[in-house]
Every structure is written in structure tokens, then in C-alpha cells.
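Self-study notes.
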Amino acid sequence: MISTLLVANRGEIARRVIRAARTLGVRTVAIYSEPDADAPHVAEADRAVALRGSTSAETYLDAEQVLAAARATGADAVHPGYGFLSENASFARACAGAGLTWVGPDPASIEAMGVKHTAKALAREAGVPTLPDALLSGDDPEEWTRAGEHVGFPLLVKASAGGGGSGMREVRAPDALADAVRSARAEAARSFGDDTVFLERLLDAPRHIEIQVLGDAHGHVVHLGERECSIQRRHQKVVEEAPSPAVSPELRERMGATAVALAEKLGYVGAGTVEFLLDEDRFFFLEMNTRLQVEHPVTEEVHGVDLVALQVSIADGEPLPFAQADVRPRGHAIEVRLYAEDPAHDDRPSPGTLHRYRHTSSGDDALRWEDALGDHGEVSAFYDPMIAKVIAHAPTRTAAARKLAAGLAQADIHGPATNRDLLVAVLRDPDFLAGETRTDFLERHADLRTPPPATPRVVHLAAAVACTSAARREHDPLAHLAPPGWRLLRGAPRPAVTWEGPDGEVVPALGGVGLRDVTPDGARVTLDGVEYRCRVAHHAGVAYVDDGEGHSAWREVPRLPAPDAAAGGAGPVSEVPGTVVEVLVREGEHVVAGQKLVVLEAMKMEHPALAAADGVVETVHVAVGQYVEAHATLVTLGAHE
């Protein structure tokens, strides 16, 4: 029987596993990298072990360090969560070799499903429908083209190992295939240590449907219905729900039976997910994830189960506590992934300090918040930028969407840019509410990335200016003697005070705006007869304003900029902190505007640095493998001679 469980992960999934283990009376061990030393999962576990290093490869992917942590703490089991080592068959075997119980499927199942093109072959043997595909084994572009014509365009180039959209490229015409294959291979090699890719027919705008399966060591396999995960960006899920608005009871039965047949063929033990693409009433095998999914909470809410606790009991040799006939969904659940990223700028990750993170997490009608961080913390550039998963459960789909949108809108999230407003806009969009959710949803609704402000900007600006002045008066007893913008010389004009906000710099013009009950922490602001109760918090010189529906951040622009404010290299700088994965130019090389010079990798994304103008490379400041901070100069360019 498992007594001490090492959680080989971080963030919200580590916290989730620790909570489930506590309900079972199982002791827990956390591991953590140097950037995660103060992370909540470390404090919540019974024991914790520090790992040497910062990056994923140095820490959470270092099997030797993880096993050493298990030995040091007397752990007798390992739960891998998802990502990192969760689908690493070699690590699962190493755990067994060290006498540890692996909370997951046996290594043979992980191996069978871990390579996508072999997984498809096994799926076909189990009678699961599949799309046309072709494995690329050589380096001849003409051979690639012939394979592409056999598969049919449009198609996807896909990494055979790994997942999450890495090593995946969309190709719509033969002349774009060679570059896509080379690019996908390079990314797959970096991400998974395996550059094998294959081609697969691309369905335009299908639905992404997955079936949750559970198998025990006694030969019983059941499914817990479907989840729909069609709303995605960069092939990564953003909104998930159960059940799907497009799946009828008859289709659910067919898809579930197909998923169970594949699991039975594998002799599958543990929790797993069989993923399909759904085109009208035709479905095709996509892949099988031999681990817990990020979106597992929607299944838990709809079916009243604890999947993590079930994983542990199955690993302990217990039989499943229910049969397929006992599975009955109730209501509807929707989950969104709250990321530190900027939807207005191509979902660019925005690591940094999360100054305040507050939400309602109690009461009968509360949302379920699966938080990676506490009331504040650091969104690290070394890992995925997820802040939380947020889940609503209600009797109907519409009620769940409304509940989730309202809860998100009312939270205080101060610091890096997030996708919160995009998520709220999606949940309130008429097409979403009508169930029109396909994989091209965000492409067809690009306006949702920059929704109009829920509250007039001038209201928040007035609150920021008034509350900032109130804060100064509170902290400086003499400040009330001189109004903002005071002048020493008789007749000198009062200098204009400029504020920077969501739409750039503005000089406050607050005519027609009324203010009441002004304190450093908030104010009642009236505009056109409507009163807005604004909360204001000050962090690092920025005033964050929330009113329950609208959110904005404001900074008073210094009248005398710092001497180095305009300093910078004569070339591209890093937009985010990250690791250099490609340097594509040499010193003395002539480049043209828009040419890719350097590629960074941060938060599971590639970030190319481009030349802003024609020029000559004078200095290359970085090398492959080097970690660089945000705004570091990568290349210095000079003018053509």
C-alpha cells in the first residue's frame, strides 16, 4: 500500500495531486527547482527536496535527481502529473527498478502510444478510424513531396514524439512542405530529443473530442464520456468542456466503445485519454495520452469522481469502484486556462511578478480554481505560463458559461498581461453559447482577442489619478499643501501630467467625471449618471484598477526620464527572457528588413528576432544555448557601407 508519494511535477498539478493524496491519508514529497523555491506546492507537501538547476531539463526532467529525492525521503511511489516525465517509459521503468510504485500505466503502454505513427497503427488494428498518414524516414525533399501527395493536401507535419503543438506545422501546398519538415524536425529534436516527423491529412475546422478511460489491474476498463477541447491557440487547448454540445448519446456510445476497445487491446491500467477529431458525425483517431490530462477537472465535476485518487487506488491494486452502467453524467462543466500571455500580440508569453492574485474560492456557487501560484508570486520564464485552471459546474451549459465568465471578471490579477479578457469574451460570445466551437474558433473570432473595455477608460483613469494622489497624501503629510503639478515660480504654467494606460499615453481630461469616497484603495466614480465602484492597488509604481467587470493598469509617466531610458542596441532585442535555440547570421553578413536573425525559446514557444531594417551584422551577442533576459540586445546592426 502506498504510504509516501513523491509528486514529480510543479505548479497547479502538483498542488492537485498533493490535495488528493491528503484525502487518502498518503504523505507527500514535493520537488522544486531553484526558481520554484517559494512555490505553493513546496509548502503544501509534507516534505520537499530541492533540485539543482533552473530549466526543465536541469530539474524536473532529470530522472536521476527525481529518483534521488525519492530515496532521500523514503517515498514508495511516484505520481508524474502531466508533462515532464509523465509519458517517459524509461523513467517509469526506472521507478519500478528502484522499488517505487508508478502511478500511471505500465511502460509498454506508454511506449506503444508515445510514438504517434505507431500509435495510429495500433489504433487501426483495434478498429479505430484514422486519417491518411505517411512517416518521413529520409532527407530527400522529392520523397517528402511524393508522400505529401499520397496523404493529400492540406496536411500537418507532426512530431512523432511529444505533444502540445511542438513540432507541428500546417502545410497547404506542396511548395511549402520542405521548409515545414525541416522546421518541425528541428523543433521536435529540441523539444523531445527525437526529430522523427510524419505527415497527416488535415481536416479544416473539425472538433477536438477526447474520451476519458480508466482501467484497473483486474481487466476492467470503463470510459467517463467525452470532453470537447476545440478552442485552441497554436494547437494548445484554451477552453474545455464536458459534455460536448455536438455529441449525441448515440455518438458518445460509439466513441466511448472505440476508446475502450483500444485500451483493452493495450491491457491499459490507469487513467488515459483517447483523442479524436470529429467532422460532423465521423471521428478519427488523433492520439492517446497515457497520463492525466490538464482538463481532467471537467470530467470530475460532471461525473462526481476524483481521478487522481482513482489513479492512486488503481496503482495500489484496487479494482475500479464502478462499472460502465454506473457512469451517469450530471450537468455541464467548463474549464479555461488562465495564462500569463498577451492575446493582442500573438499570445506572447509575459513572465514577471504577479503582485496580487485574488478570487472568490468559497461558497456553494464558487468556481473551482486550480492555482499554480498563491496570492502573489513569480511567473517564471522557464516553464509553461499557466497561472490557473478555472472550472465552473452548473445544471446547464449556458449557466456554467455565465458563472465562469462572471467569476473570472471579478478576480484581481495584477502584474503580467493575461488572457483573462479573451476568456471572458469567448464565454459570452453568441457563437460559443450556441455550441459553434471548432478548432478555428479563435481565427474566426479574432476580435475577441482585443475586446472593448468593459468600463470606459476615463473611469479607471480618474480612479487611478485620484487614488494615487490620496496615497501620496497619506504617506507624505506635506503633500496635501500642494496639488499635483505644483509650481515654484510665480506665473509658471502647471506642467501637464501624462499617464500611460492600455491605449498608450494620455493627459488626463476628467471633465464630467465625479468622484466620491476617495481613498488610496478605491473610489466611487460617476460618469453620465452611472456609478462605478473601483478598487485600486499600487504595485511597483503602477495603479491597477478593478471594478468587477473592467480591469486596467495605469502608470504616471516621469517628467524627467531616466538617462538610460532611450538606451538600446542597434539591433533586435529579446521581447521575453528565454534560451537561444538558433543564431542564423554571422558577423559581417548583409541582412534585409524582416530577416530572421535569432530564435529564442521561452514558455514552450519560439520567438524569432527580426531585422528592423537593411544592414550589416556588426556583432552577434548571443550563442545557442545561452539564456538571455528580456530586452537584451541580441545582434548589433550597422548601416550598409
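Second protein, same conventions, sequence then structure:
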Amino acid sequence: MSRKHSQAGAVAATSALVAVTLAACGGAEPSESGTGKPVSGGAFNVALNDDPGSLSPLSGVSLVQRALVPYAYESLVYTTAEGEFLPWLAESWEETPTSITYTLKEGVTCSDGSAFSAETAAANITYQADEKNGTFWHGSNITAEMSAKAEGNQLTVTSKSRNPFLLASTGAVEMVCQKGLDDPDSLKDATDGTALFALTSAKAGSEYTYTKRDDYTWGPSGVTSDTEGLPDTVVGKVVTDESTAANLLLSGGLNAAGVAGSDRDRLEAAGTAYKGTPNPIGEMLFNERSDRPTADVRVRQALTLALNREAVGDIVTNGHYEEMKSLVNQTPLLCVAGGPQWQLPPRDTAKAGALLDEAGYPAGADGVRAKDGKPLSIRFLYDAGTPSHAAAAEEVQAEWKEIGVQTELVAEDPTGWSTDLYQTYDWDTGFIQIAPGTPVVLSLFFLGATSEDGGYNFMAVENPEYNALAEKAFTAEDAESACAIWQQAETELVERADVYPLAQTTTPIFFSGATAEVAGSIQPTSIRMLG
């Protein structure tokens, strides 16, 4: 299966999933501050760790952009943190192996008062299905094989081939109202959706204000504009420093912020409430292009066998180490239950050395391994903005030195990531993570065209066993059968060391004076201000 995308789209979409990424699940929750009772009104102030730039739900790909999208746009289906699907813009749906028909709720309107219709919903799917539009969801949730039509208040999406995940994929797409869809460029600095909130002020680099509508009646689980505890406004404040965000949470200047570094312990000690989100912070990917030493599966396997997984994991997670249970770690967490089928082997430096010998990298008198006089050196990338990455990378360097491998550590900023991963391809491995919510999205990074050819496969992986299983899973008879196949496919990636799931952590989103559900990002209709 070949999925082609523009180079810019591949770079952007991958960037959205690389480095520190949040995905929802339940976490420990210390007691809320104050009385803990919902109090309507006021402003919900949430930290943004960067300026979002464009606000378009069609093309926005960065984490901060995607976190803002739900404040102004809604989907046909609401997905809870546990992966349960609830009615939202659609009140019900019926599926077949190749189609899904949604019945839309009556009375849904856009923020300007215009009606939202099944025709507009169909136009959204059609726009997303067109490759030339380069949308966020194209190629993952919406493919060129899909078509949409409207009849009355019903939307039918049809796939040319079997698709066991039509509900999860099509139901998650944020719907844009007709005016915005007719002029996509207008969505970069304005909003046009059906959501409970609408953008009323944008100050680039500073803050973005969304104001609650007074005519909203179709929220999930019966939420309306009059639901007790809703804020009057949501203010996204650009706060790039985690310590500053922590201080603002403690002083009441912020109601919500993600804090993953050393300030996490300070906030927990203060009893600040949080919702946990799994973060594959220690996941490692490999550059398998023919000119890199990591093109050889024996080298990749040796590098992983040489690592003390718990020691490195404890450092990279800042003392909050957890084993990864799946390569899928974002809501709706499809095909995670019952897994994984893979099991990581224990550290074995002797076997690692033997594999490197087989690969043609014998150890010299000085202990350094080399082939044809060239030392085995690994260029290891890590995120300069993630506090625990540097120390963990140094531990990796020390452990690889024990088996005769040299390691060049490279601290990356956003420009460096783009240059090394997508332009020069000058890297071997590192703390490089992807955080998909479904195995279909995961497959974009391991199946099909490389990023040089417009695909998402920036590692240049060619795994025939995985590819065959993925193709089979795409058209499985039902979701249960598809998940069983996808878990087999995931095992092929891990055992071949195309990916090394070294460690994950539960990254908290802290709350002060408010609470909310977290499913990938904060869910606006669930925000409740607390007295």
C-alpha cells in the first residue's frame, strides 16, 4: 500500500507526533483546591507552551495548535479518555464493513448563527479526502478511498474497501462550518465552528481568548451553555517556561498546565490536582537508510540489548518510569487492550557484542568497534527542551561505550529536528517518539513511501512482515479481527528493532481552581470552574 503526501505535509504531521506528546488516560488525582463545587463564570486560563501560529483545524499540526482546535470545533462523535464513543454532532450511527451513516442532531448551529447541515458535514469529509488539500487528517483518518453524501439530516461516508475503524476515524474529524470551508485561509486567525466556545481575541505570542456561546444545546452527555460550572471564557496563555507555569498554577494565575519536568514533584507535593496522560518519552526510532549503520538489523538489536532499560528509563522519565504497553498511546487507544504480544529481552551485552561481530564491527585493541577502519559511531538525537533527555542520553552513551560503540549526542531544537530528520537525514537513533491513537495512524510511519517521496516513513523502514500484516488488517472483517492482526504487526516492528519502546511516563496536566477531562487534550465541554 503506497500513501503519498506532500513533503511539507509529511514533515509537519510527523513533527506533531515527535518529541513530547500527550495522550489521554486516567491518572492519580489529588483533592481539588477550594470547596470543589462547580461555580459558573470567570476565565479558565490554560498554559500554551508555544505560540500556535495558524489556528486552522484543517492544516494545523503542532501540539499546541491541536490543543486549541477543540475550543472552536467539534466532531461527529465524542471520544472519552477511555476510548468510549458518545454522540456529539451526531446523535446515532450505523455501520457496515464499507460505510457508516450518521444521523445528525437537530438544531446545531455555527458560532455565527447559521445552521450546520449534513451537506456541510459531507463537504468536510470530501475536502479532507482530497490529497491536494494537505489536511491534518488526510491519509490517517480520511483517505482518498472515502466519499461522502448527505440526505436530509444523514451523512453517509463510504470506503471503497473494507474499513473496520470507520467510526473511530471519521467520527474524530473536527467539522468546519461552510463559510470557513469555502475560505480555508480565513481559519488561520479566526474560527468558524459549532463548538461551545468561539475565538473573540487573538494576540500572537501572548494569549488567545475564546468566549462561551449562549445558544449551545448539543454537547456530549447533555452539556449546554447553561451547564453549571462552565467558564465564560477560555484564555490560552503562551507560557514557554515550565517553572513559570508551575508558579502561576500555585498562585492562581493559571487553571491548567502540562508540567513534565522537575517542577512536577513540586506541584505534586503541594497537592495540586492533575490528570495523567501517557507520554512515550523514552521511545527510540532508527534511521534505516542504507548509508547508516542502523540499516543493519543486527546493529539495531545490539544497541537495544546493550541498554539497561530500567536505568535509562528511570532517568528519562525523571523517576517516573513505566513500561510501554503498546506503540499506540493516544486517544482513542484502539487495539491496545490485551496487548502487547511483544516482550522486550533483558540486557545482554555479550549477545550485543556477538551481533556487532556478525555485522562486521569487531572490537579493536582499544575496545572501539570499527568496520574497514571506520569506528562505529551513532548519532543520537534528543529534545533539548525536555529536561530529562540530556541526562538519559549521557547514560545511553556510557552504556554503549561498554560494548565499543561511540555515540555523538545531539540536542535538538525545532529547527534541528526538521533539518536532521527530513533534510539531511543525518541521524541514527535517539529519543524520537510517535504518539498515534490508532494502529492505522501508526502504520503511516512504517508503511509505504519515505519522506523523500512524500510519505510519512521518515525512518525509511522496510519491514515485509509488518507490511503484509498491515495490508491484511486494513480490510479485516471487523474491529476485533483487525486489532488481533495489528498487534501481530506491532510485534514485527519491535522484534526487528524498527522501534524500541524503552520507557514511557504518565505526564500530568495540573489543574488549579478548575477541573476537566483530558482526552489527548483538555475537552472544553468538560471544564468546570471550582469554588
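Instructor comment on the second fold: Residues 1-34 have pLDDT under 50 and may be disordered.
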